[in-house]
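Hi everyone,

Forwarding the result from last night's run.
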Amino acid sequence: MGKNKLQKFSDMEGFSHVFQYTFSTLRQLSQPFEYKGRWNEFFGNDNPIVLELGCGRGEYTVALAKMYPEKNFIGVDIKGARMWAGAKDSFQAGMKNVAFIRTNIEIISEFFAKDEVSEIWLTFPDPQMKKVSKRLTSTRFMDLYQQFVRPGGVIHLKTDSNFMFRYTEEMVKSNNYEVLFKNDDLYHSDFSDDKILSIKTFYEQQWLERGLTIKYIKFIMNPKSAFVEPDVEIEYDSYRSYNRSKRSGKDSNKKEGVDMNENMKNVQQLVKTRLAALNWKIEPLELYDPIAYVLSLGGKRIRPVTALLACQLFSDDLEKAMNQALALEVFHNFTLLHDDIMDKADLRRGMPTVHKKWNDNAAILSGDAMLIKAYQLLAKCESAVLKPILDVFSETSVGVCEGQQYDMEFETREIVTLPEYIEMIRLKTAVLLAGSMKIGAICGGASEKDADLLYKFGIGIGIAFQIKDDILDVYGDTAKFGKAIGGDICCNKKTYLLITALDKADADKKSELQSWLHKTQFDKAEKIAAVTEIYNTLNVREAAEKAMRSYYDEAISMLRQVSVSEDKKVDLYHLAETLLYRED
């Protein structure tokens, strides 16, 4: 955690014009956000409302508010410590036309009623070159904005990114929005509003000094019933942001500000190297070749990485937890061998599953051997921690089996409730992630309380991860997801989406959905398309995403209570966010 960050969080609580709401906080309210549809009461006037999304330090929001006192300005960002600067300045200045909301932009519609906002500023957002759905000018966000931006509302984008600028141009063109102004070199253009040009954020000034051009596009967003995502290839930006390792905001030149994301990559690479060093060239080859094969397929290595990151919170010596981390990955892949047989899956990480490449018997027997090898690796530890890590691992292993059994039972049960489903995925998916963190923490010398908090963190993230997996199975990209889309639908697997759909559907929709569930002969593509359309009609994807964010927020609250400095937790925060917003 950065210098004085805790004090900044404390200050923010005392600013009357700052509202801090995660999704879980909103969910606990018995009514909508207090000023939704009533911002005129907060500001004491009916002046137009302008948002800055991704406001960072809030300097642009404050500068605009000073420049245009006849408008009300609201800065929005999830990073409270950054927002503190603008919030503090405007609070001390007694400005009455400024407010800030600390929340995820994905849920911004929870704060504003229809037609309540006149303009949106997007100032130097991350271009998200590989993740369309996270770009703040994607059609996903355009659809979100039109829920509260009035007809004829204006969207402004300022960016250093050529990719972001070109993508937004194409999005505007594809959806027939009226462009009021655009230029790929703003400060050498004929743009007439000198007031706007006079406001330069901290990062904007750095980019200008570096010789980068600033792009600007201003367009009118009128309501649309359907959006068209631009289908064009745009060259990625080739440069990295000023004084940063990527676009992440980490200063790579500061010794104390070591890029924690880079540290996580190093841990991932270490895991891969040590896994590759495990010797499976032993007889009988027919038993061990499938093990070598499945471990060679890659993956994020989330379980061993989290075990090592948990260890690293309490010890600099990763070797204390290395064998245990490898054991967790071997065990996880053992479960995949058996899961793929039960699910009749053809692909795993884009490659044939073991039972397809060999046969069912080979997958079962090789999986059994992996479980035994996992225990052998796990036992290579200091005697003082052997019993507690064996206890956690054994409890975790049994939990995974219990979860798998529930999962199989649910396939043939007519009715499964969401609480039952959450318990199933807690056992099948979350306990392994949680157990990995607890084992790593124990190896690193954590107290019992801290190890338990990390376990609870892992449970929350694991549940959110599985709900995300449910979403990706229906809405993901096969090339990125690594397995065929719609597998859960074809197998009638009780997922968060299916259970929610059955719960929300009226009699007609429920009958239609159940007819597909009862069919024994069907065309896979037809069934996937039909069930997905029902999901779309009932907005179950949105419901699943809200639940996912809720469990994520609960998990983060557990991590915050672990008794080590916040700067040591950065990688785990980043990992949690990566799992939540992944596309594969």
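Residues 260-580 form a domain with the Farnesyl Diphosphate Synthase fold (CATH 1.10.600.10).

Cheers,
N.
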